[in-house]
Amino acid sequence: MHSMLFVNLPVADVDRSRKFFASLGYAINEQFSGDTAVTLVLADNQFAMLLQRDDFDSLHPLETADATKVKECVVCLGVDSRDAVDTLVDQAIAASGTDGDSEDHGSMYGRSYNDLDGHSWQIFWTDDAA
């Protein structure tokens, strides 16, 4: 049904966000990046566009949530293994992200972190055999 996904999130400092997510191993799509936006490649045709707050605010007439105080969404991303969950979340915390919640249901395992602007990223793995 959909050919591409862009999740748009406001950030206080595009350069700081670029460095943070690059340190986690995310590729940057420079075609959709610039002085006021950085676009993370999540997967084929799946992106997170991190927009300078002023530019994000101009997209719609509603007040933009402060993700450090109010959860506006949770970005959930699947990975290939339990170890990949731990590796990515541990890297985020080491790069100044904050630890979030965790769940372990045996065949489904997940942990989350909050990025530098308070956005919640849930990283999960599911055992397809189960």
TrEMBL record:
Top-rank taxon: Bacteria
InterPro entries xref list: Glyas_Bleomycin-R_OHBP_Dase, Glyoxy/Ble-like_N
Pfam family, one: Ble-like_N
Domain Glyoxalase/Bleomycin resistance-like N-terminal: 5-33
PANTHER family: BLR2408 PROTEIN, BLR2520 PROTEIN
Name of the protein this chain belongs to: Glyoxalase
Originating organism: Mycolicibacterium aromaticivorans JS19b1 = JCM 16368
Native organism taxonomy: Bacteria, Bacillati, Actinomycetota, Actinomycetes, Mycobacteriales
